[in-house]
Amino acid sequence: MTERDANETVLQVNGLCVSAQNRKRQLTPIVTDINFSIAAGKVTALIGESGSGKTTISLACLGFARAGCVINAGEVKLGSVDVLTLSNAQRRAIRGKDIAYIAQSAAAAFNSALTLNRQVTETAVINGILTQTQANEKAISLYRELDLPEPETIGDRYPHQVSGGQLQRLMAALAMMCDPRLLILDEPTTALDVTTQIEVLLSFKKLIRNKNTSAIYVSHDLAVVAQIADEVLVLKEGREVEFGSIDNIISNPQHEYTKELINAAHVMPEQLPESRSPLVDGDGLDALPLLIVKTVTAGYGRSHKYLALHDVSLEAYASRTIGVIGESGSGKTTLGRVISGLMQVKTGSVALSGQPLDDAINLRDREQLRSIQFAFQMADVALNPRHRIAKILGRPLAFYFDLPQQAIDKRVAELLDLVELPAEYAQRLPRELSGGEKQRVNLARALAAEPKLIICDEITSALDTVVAKSILALLRDLQNRLGVSYLFISHDISTIIKMADTIAVMRKGRVVEYGTTPEVMTPPHHEYTQLLLNSVPAMRTDWLDNLQDNTFSNQ
Amino acid sequence: MTLLRLIVQRLLLGVAILFVVSALIFIGTEILPGDVAQAILGQGATPELLENVRIRLGLHDPAPVRYFRWLGNLLSGNLGTSMVSGADIGQLLGERISNTVMLASATALIAVPLAILLGLLSAIKPNSMTDRAISAVSLSLISLPDFLIAIVLVMVFAVKLGWLPAIANLRPGQDFFTVARMLVLPVTVLVFTVLAHMVRMTRTAVINVLSSPATEMAILKGVPRWRLLLVHALPNALAPIANVVALNLAYLISGIVVVETLFNISGLGRLMVESVTTRDIPVVQVCAIIFCAVYVLLNLLADIVAIVSNPRLRYPK
Hints:
The structure holds 2 protein chains of 2 kinds.
Chain A: E1 9-21, E2 27-39, E3 43-47, H1 54-60, E4 69-78, E5 81-82, H2 88-94, E6 99-102, H3 106-109, H4 116-126, H5 132-145, H6 164-176, E7 182-186, H7 194-211, E8 214-219, H8 222-228, E9 231-236, E10 239-245, H9 246-251, H10 256-264, E11 291-300, E12 306-316, E13 321-325, H11 332-340, E14 347-352, E15 355-356, H12 366-371, E16 372-375, H13 379-382, H14 389-401, H15 405-418, H16 435-448, E17 453-457, H17 465-482, E18 485-490, H18 493-499, E19 502-507, E20 510-516, H19 517-521, H20 527-534, H21 543-549
Parallel strand pairs in A: 3-8, 3-9, 6-7, 7-8, 13-18, 13-19, 16-17, 17-18
Antiparallel strand pairs in A: 1-2, 1-4, 4-5, 9-10, 11-12, 11-14, 14-15, 19-20
Helix pairs in contact in A: 4-5, 4-6, 6-7, 10-17, 14-15, 14-16, 15-16
Chain B: H1 2-31, H2 36-41, H3 47-57, H4 63-75, H5 89-124, H6 129-143, H7 146-160, H8 176-210, H9 213-220, H10 225-254, H11 257-262, H12 268-277, H13 281-309, H14 311-314
């Protein structure tokens, strides 16, 4: 590890333009005229919504453009060398060695057929920098530094044998193997659970500090970026919106879009939303719950061998929202599946408006099916790519209401209006819509059945913060207008607090805390609720450093 | 160990399948029109003679009794005798099996590596000139009927140029060079017929792997292209490739009647077809069992390759 001059510029990007190229060699710009530089040991964040070109820029820094794209102008100077003028072989030689890349989803980026050690040490060994034995030793020391369990033997495992958070840290070890001058982190924590995200973030920060490496950090979440970056480049539609130090950007944003990003970040609301009064029925008595889930135990495999839910009970009220929060594997999606009848219970019962629901979906009558609708996390996958929106929305109308075609068309237009989409969208295919628009169609499809309850399973977690915020506003608006109830499933406690009237905190298939939002949010918290609360980054640059000293230091 | 357990499980399943198949074959030959005694003695046989033969062969016993007697004989290695020639089926098969296996293995040794190589070459740059050329040639070769290719090759290399023999008269005791010379033309025809299928499958499987985020990651960490293909992509594409290779090898054992006939090689496929035309039921039954066993065994091998090449199956969580 050589000492580097603190003022030395490691990367200088000038006038970078990347375009998409079609078969006729016509160019459509993706990013235009990007300029920034990174000094030794500093971290620059690229921030913006999906499609803003942040990944394209970071890949261009490696001299790489995805299939169908070309880097058509500008220079990327690593030290004194312009990466873009190098031959393919020369570019290959600096990749992994001088500039290392950490991909968004480590689970997808690791080759499932090779052992972890082989992949971590590969660049160093094939470039002849280290022998296999030396590389293995170095890998072990990196594993230790990244707080991976069993550092001596974890490298002999295959990717599927370690957890998502561990994979992301192994990817960091892979990147640091040759002590690169520049590290590119492309949304490295987006696919992780909130508590894991903090641990991984801490590991990255420690690594960058210890090795005095420069880094580009790509993210859509300003609160996360605030913990690690020195400077921020805000991007929109492939152009620079604002560039400045992280403190300036947070405390004194100049551009409207930056302000929007700050507003939409996943941070704790300053105060709890006003709690809504309990509903009363006609006689002035407290209304009965719409949905009652009573001591449900359910699992997967033959005769529920692998239990995913233990003794879960909760109640949902008409035109109110119940938030279910937990990390992956906590059973929150399974709960949604049980309520909707996609999965059968082992013991326990589900009742809607006082009527017990059969747990098998094919035994529920049409009215019961209509009452509970499901909005899935990935609108991309949940919408049939070959059906036009009119057909997607028309199907539940025909199924539940036996409407004639003319009435269906009219209702489809109403539904689109309800989710604030133009009526012309009826003739579009899902791929002609943006991510947020697809999620709106997804909601409109659930609304088409005029349900009493919509199960929203992580419907905002695949969206950018700004888009997610608008979807949440839409959900609230629809509730006020239509009186529909939500079972809102999320892993993000800050979103849940903004949405829910009651909260169920789930962990390992059990409800560990349950009550109205003010009850759950008032200390003392359950230990796990506290951990979740501590995992939400604040829009301050010192949040992670302070946190390190108390909650996560002993992990 | 899980892998061993899995293999044993599959093997037992394969044996079970063979039993089911033996029953199906027996039922199938039962349904076939014609009377075995009549077939043996010919049209002019007297009813008394026919009756005698039926009693001697036990044809009056109920079908299940005859099935289990046949199966028992089969299992004890007594394959029975041919109705046409009266020869022992075991002896009849011996030479033909060795001919067929020689032809099939020579073809496989050339076709499998060649197909994987061409598939990889195509997959490096889909829709490039190389890819199109490989696709065009291999697809034309599979589209032409094998007898046509065979006849053309024989015309050119055996008749006009006189370089190679036109038929492959395989006999025991021939030296290696003679056999190799005789096999060139039939093996070439067979390579042409099985190549395209394997090339296309390799190409598709590798392209699939190459479009994954893991490939982009490997490029971004500076892995050279050849290494990307051989070390990163191929292990992940092995399972589908093994499947199509197994299917083609099974075809080489059982289905190459035309090539065997054209080059006058006495092999298994030809034996089966000849036995069907002469209603030599015992031979047909044994051949069918052998072909089925080959399919079961090769598919088992492909499954094992798929398991060994996939750590998720090898080391379940």
